[in-house]
Amino acid sequence: MKINQDLGDLTLDLVNISSVSQDEKAIADLVQESLSNLNHLTVTRIANSVVAQTNFGNSKRVVIAGHLDTVPANNNFPGKKTDTDITGLGSVDMKSGIAVALKLAHELTKSNFDITYLFYESEEIETKFNGLELITKQNKDLLNCDFAILMEPTNGIIEVGCQGSLRFEVSAKGNRAHSARWWNGENAIHALSPILEVINSYESREPVIDGYKFREGLQAVKINGGVAGNVVPDLVTMTINHRFAPDTTAKVAEENMRKLFNNFDFKLMDAASAAPTGLNNELIKNFVQAIATPIAPKFGWTDVARFAAAGIPAINFGPGDPNLAHHPSEAVKIKQIEDVYSSLKKWLSN
Predict the structure, then answer these.
(1) Which of 242, 257, 272 is the C-terminal boundary of a domain?
(2) What 8-state DSSP symbol labels residue 72?
């Protein structure tokens, strides 16, 4: 993998390395290989995550982090390059951010900060598989820093904080019977109607926090049920995703959902805390002033929350429109990749 090519071509090369969650070995190998021979970096490999650190002797350390994995393809792999865009799976989320970080890792042989570059696995799935979780368990000192920048897609602006996320299952039960004699059974799928009514009548909170409006949500994302084409099903399970604002803890969010679905079997699958905006922190204030780009709240969950939980100020700043993340028409502007790179290089060099 050639790092000394333009950022558009480097992003395309990364897009065309398949790295669906839990299948990141190939891309991790190439990232490790591209960094291991650089004299100014110390490289550590943990599973399919790669950590590269400078040791310039500066008083402050900055983390620049990006995840290597993507969601499964949706007729958008491999990627393509036009005069203006890189298209394809992961171009937005977040191979373009990885390209920026790799380029910085190669070119910044001195800085006013020490820098830790984190290229980690399995961010797109359950927390227990997240590469930062594995690094924390095996060598948490690798994550020590004074400030963290997550290269999540933000359309080239700064997005502060992040909303938390709950994934849970709600089940409806019935009685199995032959579909020709349906009156002898109770259809569990039909019993989903009240669950859908709860979801459809849910009124999303839109709290304003530190001057920025967050927007909560409640969405059914998966249904499992059915036995055979001639059987009345006796069990169906719906997976639901709840996004909650930074003024709510994961515990309170879970309590709220249990109350909302108190007439149904409820099973929590995964919980990720929200993160505050951090705009009162001096390091974030300085970064915002230096980058001089608009600010918005982060509606999705990112690992900013993980750093915030450890008391480390963190923000989201990367190329790519987050509205196109996980979209079959995923595409990122080449100029935006270059602009994010230039802004970070200038800040790290100044």
Answers:
(1) 272
(2) P
Q: Residue 132 and residue 116: Cα distance in Å, rounded?
A: 13
What are the contacts of 43-48 at 24+ separation with CB within 8 A? 44/139, 44/142, 46/131, 46/134, 46/135, 46/138, 46/139, 46/142, 47/121, 47/131, 47/134, 48/24, 48/121, 48/122, 48/131
User: C-alpha 15: how far from its chain's center?
Assistant: 17
Residue 2 forms part of a structural domain: no
Q: Cis omega (within 30 of 0) on the bond before 72?
A: no
What would the DSSP string read from start to end of 156-205? TSEEESB-EEEEEEEEEE-B-EEGGGGGGSB-TTGGGHHHHHHHHT----
Does residue 52 share a domain with residue 24?
yes
Identify the domain containing residue 187 by its residue range: 164-272
The neighbour count for residue 338, using CB atoms within 10 Å, is 17
Same-domain check for residues 20 and 139: yes
What pTM does this model have?
0.87
- Strands 49-53 and 164-173, how do they pair? unpaired
pLDDT one-digit tens code per residue, 14-25: 999 999 999 999
Residue indicated by tokens 């995840």: 67
Contact 92, 154 (CB under 8 A): no
Of the candidates 146, 164, 161, 119, the residue with the CA atom closest to the CA atom of residue 28: 119
Instruction: For residues 144 and 51, state if they share a domain.
Output: yes
Contact 75, 86 (CB under 8 A): no
How big is the CA angle at 311 (ends 310 and 313), to the nearest 5 degrees?
115
Q: Is residue 1 part of a domain?
A: no
Which residues are the active-site residues?
69, 123
Return the ∠ at Cα 216 (arms to 215 and 222), rounded to 5°. 130
Cα–Cα distance measured from residue 17 to residue 56, given in angstroms and rounded to the nearest whole number: 32
Q: Do 300 and 240 reside in the same domain of the chain?
A: no
Within 10 Å of residue 101's Cβ, how many Cβ atoms? 24
pLDDT in tens, 265-318: 999 999 999 999 999 889 899 999 999 999 999 998 999 999 998 889 999 999
Joined together, the tokens standing for residue 5 give: 């090519």
